[in-house]
Structures are given as structure tokens and as C-alpha cells.
Specification:
Blueprint: E1 7-10, H1 15-25, E2 30-34, E3 41-46, E4 49-53, E5 66-71, H2 74-83, E6 87-94, E7 100-105, E8 111-116
Parallel strand pairs: 1-4, 5-8
Antiparallel strand pairs: 2-3, 3-4, 6-7, 7-8
């Protein structure tokens, strides 16, 4: 199988609240929108893929769902997210494995790792 593109499909409890979080608090750019009113869906750019927020679920997204977002500067992202009233579960910490990680949560409790790969980290280099 040759994958040409990818996207996460997120079906939140409250679509308008989730769109306000992903488009507002996180500041993700919109790739496309479709439908109208309650049926409106929004697809956001998410690095090398996309995040689609559409539909409504009484249960919210799968409880084990996690997103991993790499940023250039985790400390700057932390300040930006705090200024936008995003729920920061844990501020940035340099982990024993060398990455700087911060955890936030979306309105349905989906955990999102915001990660910085420092210049000296092995993920930046291929042997």
C-alpha cells in the first residue's frame, strides 16, 4: 500500500467547541471546510497530515487517542497556548530521552503531546 496522504478523523461531543479549540487555541490553519451548521466539518493542516473535526459523538473520541505535535520551540508554544487559555496538563519538561515535551488536552480530554526535538537529539540525524 502506498499512502498518498493521511488525516485523523475526530468526532467530538461538541463540534463548535472543538473547532474553537483547534482553530483558535491551537491556531491550526484550515485546509478546507465542508457542510453547513451542525453538519459542518473542518479539516486542519497538521504538519505532514491533516486533522478533520466533523460530526458529533455522544461518547467523544476514542479514550486512548493521543496526538503528537512537533514544534520548533516548546517554551514559546507553552506561552502562546497559555495566552489562548488552552488547558495545559503539564508544562514543558526535558525528558530523560532528550525530547522537550508538554501535554495539553482538547475539550473532550484528548491528550496532545507538544514536542520539541533539540538540535543535539539523535532524531535529527540519520546514521
Amino acid at each position: 500500500m502506498h499512502v498518498l496522504s493521511s488525516r485523523f478523523l475526530l468526532t467530538p461531543r461538541d463540534p463548535a467547541r472543538s473547532r474553537a479549540f483547534y482553530g483558535g487555541a491551537l491556531g491550526l490553519a484550515v485546509y478546507r471546510e465542508f457542510g453547513t451548521g451542525e453538519e459542518r466539518g473542518t479539516v486542519y493542516f497538521l504538519g505532514g497530515g491533516f486533522l478533520e473535526v466533523s460530526g458529533r459523538s455522544a461518547d467523544g473520541p476514542a479514550p486512548g487517542l493521543r496526538l503528537w505535535l512537533q514544534v520548533a520551540d516548546c517554551a514559546a508554544a507553552y506561552e502562546e497556548l497559555r495566552a489562548r487559555d488552552a488547558e495545559v496538563v503539564r508544562p514543558p519538561v526535558r525528558e530523560p530521552w532528550g525530547l522537550v515535551e508538554m501535554w495539553i488536552a482538547d475539550p473532550d480530554g484528548v491528550r496532545i503531546a507538544v514536542v520539541e526535538v533539540p538540535e543535539d537529539h539523535p532524531l535529527r540525524y540519520r546514521p
